[in-house]
Amino acid sequence: MTRPGTGPGGGRPSAPAPPHPERDLDRLLAGLRPLRNPGAYVFTTVDGPVPAGLDPVVTVTEAEGRTLVVRREEADAAGLAYDYVAAWITLRVHSALDAVGLTAAVARALAAAGLSCNVVAGFHHDHLFVEHDSAYEALSLLRALADRSNGGFDHDRDR
Asked: At a CB cut-off of 8 Å and minimum separation 6, what does 148 contact?
């Protein structure tokens, strides 16, 4: 029997290795390839563990409680309070965790248009949570930012 994530005989992983993470700011910006994930998401907080029935896309443990980012439908079903409804945009460039300037450049572009943005860094990608009603404007601004940058990457037009 093969262990999950390994090839036959427990050797190399079955899936291809991800590309090396990018650190160069121009290449990061040129390769943003923003993708809007379906649905509406909310930020809520709970004391203790994640309640049953919730599948958060982000969790942050703070002294005041555990912040969860979950689909709005899940929060409503669980009776959780929230006041910010967001769209989730993934920047599909494989950004290095120690890359400098990506978050600032993205936040600056969105702030110039009066859009708020909450950024979460994952291992492979950065994820933006913007006001739900401003999602398409944010996507347009991010694509324009990528187009102004150099690097010659192909820009997908997914929504």
From this structure: 29
**Pair 23, 75: CB distance under 8 Å:** no
Asked if 39 and 71 touch (Cβ cutoff 8 Å), the reply is yes
Angstrom CA distances, 117 to 51, 99, 103, 139, 149, stand at 26, 19, 10, 12, 21
Give the whole-angstrom CA distance, residue 124 versus residue 99.
12
For 40-69, what is each residue's pLDDT tens digit? 999 999 999 999 999 999 999 999 999 999
Per DSSP, the three-state class of 23 is coil
Instruction: Take residue 127 and report the two structure tokens written for it.
Output: 């994820």
- Is-contact 46 80, C-beta < 8 A? yes
- In angstroms, the Cα distances linking 14 to 2, 7, 18 are 10, 5, 12
Beta-carbon contacts of 45 under 8 Å, excluding residues fewer than 6 positions away, are 64, 65, 66, 67, 68
Q: CB–CB of 88/39 below 8 Å? A: yes
